[in-house]
Amino acid sequence: MQNIQGIIFDMDGLMFDTESLYYRATQEVADRMGFSYDFAIYEKYIGISDEEVWQAYHEMYDSLFGQQTVNTFINRSFDRAVELFESGAAEVKPGLKELLTYLQEENIKRCVASSNQRRIINILLEKNNLSEEFSHIVSFEDVTKAKPDPEIFEIAADRFGLPKENLLILEDSKNGILAADQAGIDVIMVPDLVKPTSEIKEKTSAVLPTLNEVSTILEK
């Protein structure tokens, strides 16, 4: 993969250990409010937009608790997650900073393409002194369709102004892999909380244990 000139990074679960914090925040609030909730519910919605997750919660809980109470559950969960992010609790994933240093030395452009809100992206980048590492950011506010739709990666490719064959996407989720596949851009998966199926593995250029191994793939 020696012709790569730009890399598109997913954020949650790939760059930062945020998925476990989102789950922690939601579980804390669910327990306080008496909602039946566990990790099996949470993991079904990894890799999709906040709005789709919230809609799913309304479908699950409105008949039991009422729409307003479910709105309160959603808002408190989100606010608790933001508190955790602002406290610096979201750890950088292994190999991220080393990979960014390598890409800078090789003059390979970097972009964040995340389904998260721009303010959350900014909080996490600023807390970890990474704001200057990326030339472009594509966030929830920039798209009309969430992953697995390829729109977010199409926009990122346009902002780079590079041919798709010179781009690489780094992802951790099933929906991210499907979006990359539909965009026609090579993708490497670094799984986080959910391990890939054989079907998902087939859509990747590689499945790696951490970001530490990405530079080795780029040099082949």
UniProtKB/TrEMBL annotation:
GO MF term set: hydrolase activity
Gene3D superfamilies according to UniProt: HAD superfamily/HAD-like, Putative phosphatase, domain 2
Pfam families registered for this protein in UniProt: HAD_2
Domain of life of the source: Bacteria
Assigned keywords, A-Z: Hydrolase
Ranges annotated as spanning the membrane: none
UniProt key word Hydrolase: yes
Family matches, as PANTHER family: 2-DEOXYGLUCOSE-6-PHOSPHATE PHOSPHATASE 2, PSEUDOURIDINE-5'-PHOSPHATASE
The protein's name: Hydrolase
Source organism of this protein record: Tetragenococcus halophilus (strain DSM 20338 / JCM 20259 / NCIMB 9735 / NBRC 12172) (Pediococcus halophilus)
